[in-house]
Amino acid sequence: MDSILVNWETLDSLVLNFAKSENLLINQDSSTTTSSSSPPSSPSSSSYRSRFLIRQIRRSLEIGQVDTAIDLLREHAPFVLDDHRLLFRLQKQKFIELLRRGTVEDRSSAMECLRTALAPCAMDAYPEAYEEFKHVLLALIYGKDDQTSPVANEWAVIRRFEIAGLLSSVLRAYLSAYDPIFSMTLRYLISIHKGFCLRQGISSPISDLTERLLLEERDPPPVPQESLYEAPPFDEVDIQALAHAVELTRQGAVDSLRFSKGNLFQAFQNEICRTKLNVELLDELVHEYCVYRGLVEGGITSSFSGILSGQQIPSGSSANHEQGLGYVSSKVSNSDFIDDSSKETNAEAMVIDSTELRFINEVTSNQEDCSTSETSHPEHSRGFQRSRSHGIGERSRRKRWRGRVEKVEDIPDVSFTETETKTNTHDLPASSQVADSNILEEQQIAVKHSGVEIITSKEDDKYEFVLEMKELASKGMASEVVEEVDATDPSFFVLNPHLLFQLKQLEFLKLVKCGDHSGSLRIACSYLGPLAASNPTLLKPLKETLLVLLKPNEDALDKGIPFSVLASSLQVAMGRRLGVDEPLLMKLMRATLHTHNEWFRLQMCKDRFEGLLKIDSLKEIKTPLIIDDVSKKSTDNSTPGSSQMTTSSSNRMVEDGNSPTQVSSGDVICDETAILKVMEFLALPRADAIHLLAQYNGNAETVIQQIFA
Fold first, then answer.
1. How far is residue 24's CA from residue 32's CA, in Å, rounded to a whole number?
2. Among the residues of 137-274, which ranges form H helices?
3. What average pLDDT is seen over the chain?
4. Which end of the chain is more exposed for a tag (fewer CB within 10 A), N or C?
5. Minimum mean pLDDT range among 100-104, 536-540, 545-549
6. pTM of the model
């Protein structure tokens, strides 16, 4: 699992796109301090407003404010109310909610709703609607507390969530308000990971994280208006691909395709977005990754340990407020200023003077602290301050984290009364509570402009040093990296000879490109040769590196490891050495991409949706052959003691695209039509259908006869 190479540059792009799309970053180009993520006319901003509208409608329905939801629909999505099936369900729920309030006035309003709205809708909503209308009238007689009544299910609070989920699915599809690609990709990869581990009997090393991140609940699917009894005019390949990708029945896949008018990828997005994610946890994973990769401002501290370890943050603490803002502060955090000797004591102090800011918050000894302060390496610290000047320019270009602060004004022409806003607040996650977030943001701005110098911790010094070395490596400045690292930690390259080889290989290739053959040979004699002599795995890469001298017309740098891959490997190795561990998102991506490979190897086909979700780009590492072995060795060595997940299979991957192909299992050639026929009739996964066909010479009719015999 840990040996898989991931294109972290692609993940950077996906994660930043997610943060921008979800309005998690502060727009530094704006003159205001609380700006939106993009101009109102941009597609991403439009999609964000649509998703925000859907969330407001969902929350209104979940707390029984049906009138508010209908008003929002009438103003922003009136086409939904033209569907009398949905309108009938909304009016029926409104009738129940009016009765639930119990006052004489509300009961009178419920009777008015019956006469003017619910009864007319029941006449033409759908065939069963009138019977449902007569049945719900019993709610006038049987109260909400009578659990044995024939309308107990109509009184159930879960009905609110069902209609809220259905409306969300319909609006998402009609408004094309799909979640960002990264969010959908995570849902898909985690779903495959869980299924693969379950079917193969493998214990997942990231099960705790995936269970908390991907929730079991799904929104109801949007129902097409056409008759369900019509013969589906869809390709069976599309039906089976959708059914197995998002775990639907065949009929469910047909209905989903019918709703999307046969558009396979739109149907897939409709289905994948029905699955719910823990948004608060996802934001924390993204923030942690962005800080680690130097994409946003911040320091590596224990601020992330609370939610990522599944622990409750004490109420009333400043950490609770930090959740609301999404950790806007780049330097002020709980563990940045905690002295190592006082970790097991409770302290409450804030001291601000003209030269420093120290903030010590409550820290309990039983908390699992994933900060780097527990792993102290004082012998490495002497070179950090000297090296910090290299990264000043890079740090100034980092984005600022805003957090999930959703404001009503982000939706034009949508207004809530003060009472409604207060009512909704307790249903929102901490990251969506605007009041606390605004207070914190104002505090951060005040700190920024007060001239207070913030003293960072040793951990942040290490973190900045690692980022600076990553930046130098990503620019191809190999000799500078070696010099800086040697000055800071002389034993680092002794423990990581493969990285020294790759850096010196890069330096060698740059000299070859410049025509300095004597200089390149000096590098080979002084470094590459001795390293290969002491590490046999480097001997083959050394030979192929030297071959570059014979081909002066080719671009020498194309033969070496890509700068981005080398920079990422260096960052992970140096981080571990200095106690700056890689973020959970990187571990999650390695594990899920590994199981994605294994799953489709078992299925003996190509993933139809990997291009849409950028999974193919995440796996695409353009590494030349001369460094393949070294890179794999580097990855294996960088994660000592980590859990491995391997499976053995003789199956081969088949590129099937959109056209039927033939798949080999042993010596038997199975036609794609036969595979689909067995999958459909026996409701089997693709791999099982292929194995059965292999037993009966690829004859689908024989397989079906034998099973039903």
1. 15
2. 152-155, 158-174, 181-200, 207-213, 236-245, 250-259, 264-272
3. 75
4. C
5. 545-549
6. 0.74
